Amino acid sequence: MLTSAQIQARIRQLASVLKQECFTESERPLLVCTLKGAAPFFHDLCLALQQLSQSYDLEFVRVSSYHGTSSTGTVSSSDGSELIATPLHNRTVILCEDIVDTGTTLEWLVPQLHAKGAASVHVCTLLDKRLPEEKKKYTAAYTGFSIPNHFIVGYGLDYNEWYRDTSDIFVLGKTGIIACDRHYEKLKEELS
Ligand code: IMP
Ligand code: MG
Predict the structure, then answer these.
(1) For the chain (length 192 residues), average pLDDT per consecutive 10?
(2) Confidence (pTM)
(3) Contact indicator for 126, 95 with CB cutoff of 8 Å
(4) What is the pLDDT of residue 74?
(5) Hey, which of 85, 104, 141, 154 would disulfide with 169, CB 3.0 to 4.6 Å?
(6) What secondary structure does DSSP assign to 142-169, as a single string?
């Protein structure tokens, strides 16, 4: 669906827009990565901001709302620990997401960051899935690519933990699903 070159070019544009709109001379914004899917995007966005000589602080949150190829409709902080360690009081937060699908994750997460005292939360997502408006619970302020409603993998995005390790982004087809499912079945057999 998207090549590494397309992704990297768009990230450089996003960094420059964020620099203009969310950074001030007197303040270091806190960049927050939603693990695990957004990790490659977050890394490359940080590098692009470094190229623009921008200072920032880093944090990570770990949440999940997906099982296989469908949204479970609920969000959990996956290891049960405190959501975020850095105090957010009066901070400008830039929350980096891999993909906004139904918006369930962000509808849950953004108010949590405000409740912890953030002065502002700007959501920057690499991808936004085009869904009918009534199915979208949250729209990000900054989006890399608006994409059709397919299940996609690569560049951090997974199908049951597979395919995170590519630099391009792909639509997941039947072959990809079968290859991954077989792997887990084999593992189960070996363990039983
Ligand atoms: P939402 O809560 O429905 O907006 O879904 C957001 C989260 O679900 C993302 O952060 C991803 O981790 C995961 N997700 C949604 N769509 C896809 C997809 O097409 N491929 C892989 N993960 C996805
Ligand atoms: Mg995610």
Answers:
(1) 98 97 90 97 98 95 75 61 87 97 94 95 98 94 98 97 97 96 94 90
(2) 0.92
(3) no
(4) 64
(5) 154
(6) EEEEEE-S--EEBTTB-BTTBSTT-SSB
Give the rounded distance of the alpha carbon of 130 from its chain centre.
16
Q: Given ligand 1 and candidates 101, 107, 180, which is best to mutate, with the most ligand atoms within 8 Å of its CB?
A: 101
* DSSP 8-state symbol, 174: H
How is residue 2 annotated by DSSP? B
The answer to whether residue 101 is catalytic is yes
Would you say 54 and 30 are in contact if contact means Cβ atoms under 8 Å apart? no
Q: What is the C-alpha separation between 153 and 172, in angstroms, rounded?
A: 6
Classify strands 57-67 and 70-77 as parallel, antiparallel or unpaired.
Answer: antiparallel
Q: List the end-to-end C-alpha distance of the chain, in Å, as a whole number.
A: 38
**What tokens appear for 12 in the block?**
């450089």
Q: Would you mind telling me the total number of residues written for the chain in this entry?
A: 192
